[in-house]
Amino acid sequence: MGVTSFPGQATVANAKIPSIIYYDKDGLVRAIGAEADRDGIEMIAEEEEWEKVEWFKLHLRPNTPEFAAATEFVKPLPFKKTVVEVLSDFLKYLNDCAKQYIQERHPGIGSSILEDAEIHYILPHPNGWEGQQQALMRQAAEKAGLISRCSHGRNKNKLTFITEGEASLNRCIEKGLITEDIQRGSGITIVDAGGGTLDISAYAAKSGGKDFEEIAESQCHLKGSIFVTKAAKEYLHDFLKRSKFLGDIPDMERYFDRKTKCEFRNPADPNYIRFGSVRERDTKLGINSGKLRLAGKDVASFFEPSVKCIIDSVLAQRQIALRSISNVFLVGGFAASDYLFKRVKEELEPQGLKVFRPDDQVNKVVADGAIAGIVDRSVRSRVTRLAYGTSVIVPFDPSLAEHRKRIQQLKRAYSGEMAIPDAFSVILQKNTQVSETQEFRCSYTRGGPNPLFLRTMVKQILCYRGKQSIEKYQFMDNEPESYRESCTVKADLTDIPMALCFGSQGTYLEVVIDIIILFGCTELKAQIAWNENGVEKRGPAEIIYDTDI
């Protein structure tokens, strides 16, 4: 059973609230969610000098070129607040509302359930969010009191992440929307069309039809419904730039976002934006009785970049998928647009794809599917979006041209051999299907005369965002901009035996281990392994992300 009402909601039809927060001059929360979107709130905020924060989740976006379009929506947060602090306030509010709802609907047992139970929180996020974004969300959950960093504390709650694409699939399964051909193994593309992002994911049922596997690299594009409103705003600024109505554009934008955009269906019909009073009139501009007339073809043009993005992404994903795809499910808040659904359907069905849309509460698919995914665990293997590897030193081979080019970079290792630093050694290729239990290893060797220097391992795991195919390794100075730090693996090596070695510079100590990484889960996991008297032993390793964004 879900939480079906929040404070300030006029209706409980969809039980979803906007991600909006108002802060007062002291940086305290004054209105949040539906209460921050009620009529007249702008006037109160102006009188009380409150600051409005919306679309704050886009502050979490990865610092990569594909998310550069979010810059316009990512305004500086007020009062020097961080995105972790703002997200923490929002998570605390949601948690408090959920607990209050349970207590009110289940008198007598609600309080005892919440006090004694271990709570499992599931946070969905766009397909394009990575480990750094998960780490920031975890910090926000800790700050909000949902979970505790210390495992031995009173707070025994758990936190799990899930992509919006996977959550959407789970909800479609739960609602019985999986057709017979999908159960027989035909692929399905999930298009989660939200406010900010379009998340495109592809899955197929495994033998038996119960478990699913991801069959193509997921996609995440900043082409959600807010970009339709953005296009309308740009049109209005150009259309009204020399008129007296320029100052009314913010009101027009709000009306378009809440009404015109949602009700638009036919490019052949005119559409209207209400603003100001009924006395507003300008026949040359198509304004009468406080309504601005928009040609349907112009409104359709606002949708077109999002439509094209969905079409191109679905077709591109079908080309690289490991199984054939014949079905497309359009979900998410933006999917409620009849025009969007119609355009996607008329473009994709001639390509041999059947397009469906859930018939109830499409904007809650992710929330409900996130819970279903943890309970039923339908997806057991996923496809990597990036290539992962480490920086290694490669022994110099004078017969190779790429090595001779770097003769000035040669360094002498403790063993005495000459080697070239800063080569990228692949651990896992891009677009590879990986199960949750599948292990990937990379070797870690470190030598030196001081044993204290060898007691701690800190190893960077890199990701490659370029277009080249990497067979074994390649030198990073060829495409330095394509390599980014994914995370750092840290481990205590105190109990691992060291070998006494002899090199050109005398004796030195060396430690040799394997770093084991599991890429197939919703979060990266790591261990270390070493050989001791012919027996492999294992120890814990910590994954650390750079959370400075």
Please characterize this protein's 3D structure.
The radius of gyration is 27 Å and the shape is globular. Strands 6, 7, 8, 9, 13, 14, 15 and 19 form an eight-stranded mixed beta sheet that branches. Strands 16, 17, 18, 21, 22, 23 and 28 form a seven-stranded antiparallel beta sheet that branches. Strands 20, 24, 25, 26 and 27 form a five-stranded antiparallel beta sheet that branches. A hairpin with a 6-residue loop joins strand 7 and strand 8. It has twelve helices and 28 strands. It folds into three domains: 137 residues, no CATH class; 178 residues, 2-Layer Sandwich (Nucleotidyltransferase, domain 5); 158 residues, no CATH class. The relative contact order is 0.10. It has 549 residues and is an alpha+beta fold.
Q: Please report the distance between the alpha carbons of the first and last residues.
A: 37 Å
Instruction: Determine the CATH topology of the largest domain.
Output: Nucleotidyltransferase, domain 5
DSSP summary, beta strand count: 28
CATH fourth-tier homologous superfamily of the largest domain: ATPase, nucleotide binding domain
Structural class: alpha+beta
Provide the number of structural domains.
3
Task: Summarize the biggest pleated sheet.
Answer: 8 strands, mixed
- Could you tell me the strand content as a percent range? 25-35%
Oligomer: single chain
CATH architecture of the largest domain: 2-Layer Sandwich
Average pLDDT: 89
Morphology: globular
InterPro entries: ATPase_NBD (IPR043129)
